[in-house]
């Protein structure tokens, strides 16, 4: 069966969505069958990153029992010119009322337990019925119940951190309080690293040492900070638009590491 990769972080804004979306694209461009879900139901973003205008059904509709599982998957092959592989996506409803509703429901333990069953159904459809290679789940940051749902079904947890001390410490906190309890061995991506500036090299090495030697966690990649990413205004995929970019090269290393299993 294919693998479920969950992209998580301690704080918001570390780059989960960029990493998840570009990784999904790069895997599909290498011939893999990939489905990506915007499970950040309280702050949807993936529909914009993939430039999708017309969404037939949102993940919200599926979770509310208002549509079938096949209805929520949007085929992205044609618009991204992917040949050989497959990329489809389930998007979350960005409408203000829908987000308010999700904020309310995401704190309701019973609803979240039911949602877990729906997520399992979605995974089984993608990985067993459709026989896809990867299900990639972009999550909410931190300790949200819905993040726990996604982490619980992960084969691979990828935790995206930046170099700020609070993010590193927050990631260590997640390791103790969540990942170990769920028996997950996360792998780390250090994003927005201002490579080549000042003392940054030393800082990256120290952080790598902490993760690798002290905690035995693999660092999947260090992704440079680049103004070309915000310049895409969350409307485009850098791996698709600028395939030779140094950020994409760093992401390619991540993809290689994910394919090693
Ligand atoms: N390597 C990078 N260099 C420069 N800017 C980056 C980089 N990665 C991400 N960004 C910028 O950081 C912001 C947050 O990125 P993104 O939305 O992927 O993070 P996130 O972890 O998904 O956030 P949230 O928790 O809010 O969902 C975006 O404006 C994006 O353009
Ligand atoms: Mg995000």
Please characterize this protein's 3D structure.
This protein is an alpha/beta fold. It has one domain (3-259): Rossmann fold, CATH 3.40.50. Helices cover 44% and strands 16% of the residues. The protein contains eleven helices and eight strands. The protein has helices spanning 16-29, 46-49, 59-63, 77-80, 96-105, 109-129, 145-152, 165-179, 200-214, 238-241, 246-259, and strands at residues 3-8, 33-38, 74-75, 86-90, 134-138, 156-161, 187-193, 219-224. α9 links the parallel β7 and β8. α1 (16-29) crosses α11 (246-259) and α6 packs parallel to α7. The chain is globular, with a radius of gyration of 17 Å. The mean pLDDT is 95. Adenosine-5'-triphosphate binds next to α1 and β7.
Summarize the topology.
Blueprint: E1 3-8, H1 16-29, E2 33-38, H2 46-49, H3 59-63, E3 74-75, H4 77-80, E4 86-90, H5 96-105, H6 109-129, E5 134-138, H7 145-152, E6 156-161, H8 165-179, E7 187-193, H9 200-214, E8 219-224, H10 238-241, H11 246-259
Parallel strand pairs: 1-5, 1-6, 2-4, 2-5, 6-7, 7-8
Antiparallel strand pairs: 3-4
Helix pairs in contact: 1-11, 6-7
Bound molecules: adenosine-5'-triphosphate and magnesium ion.
């Amino acid at each position: 069966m294919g693998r479920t990769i969950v992209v998580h972080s301690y704080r918001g804004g570390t780059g989960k969505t960029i990493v998840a979306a570009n990784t999904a694209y790069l895997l599909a461009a290498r011939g893999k069958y990939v489905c990506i879900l915007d499970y950040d139901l309280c702050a949807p973003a993936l529909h914009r990153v993939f430039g999708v205008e017309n969404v037939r059904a949102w993940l919200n509709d599926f979770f509310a029992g208002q549509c079938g599982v096949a209805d929520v998957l949007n085929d992205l092959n044609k618009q991204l010119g992917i040949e050989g592989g497959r990329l489809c996506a389930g998007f979350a409803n960005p409408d203000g009322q829908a987000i308010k509703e999700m904020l309310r429901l995401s704190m309701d333990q019973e609803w979240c337990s039911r949602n877990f069953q729906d997520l399992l159904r979605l995974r089984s459809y993608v990985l067993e019925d459709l026989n896809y290679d990867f299900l990639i789940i972009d999550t909410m940051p931190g300790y949200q119940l819905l993040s726990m749902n996604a982490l619980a079904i992960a084969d691979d947890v990828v935790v995206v951190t930046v170099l700020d001390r609070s993010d590193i410490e927050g990631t260590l906190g997640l390791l103790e309080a969540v990942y170990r309890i769920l028996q997950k061995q996360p792998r780390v991506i250090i994003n927005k690293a201002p490579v080549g500036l000042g003392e940054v090299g030393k800082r990256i090495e120290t952080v790598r040492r902490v993760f690798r030697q002290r905690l035995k966690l693999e660092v999947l990649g260090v992704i440079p900070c680049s103004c070309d990413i915000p310049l895409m205004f969350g409307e485009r995929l850098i791996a698709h638009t600028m395939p030779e970019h140094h950020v994409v090269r760093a992401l390619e290393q991540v993809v290689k590491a994910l394919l090693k299993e």
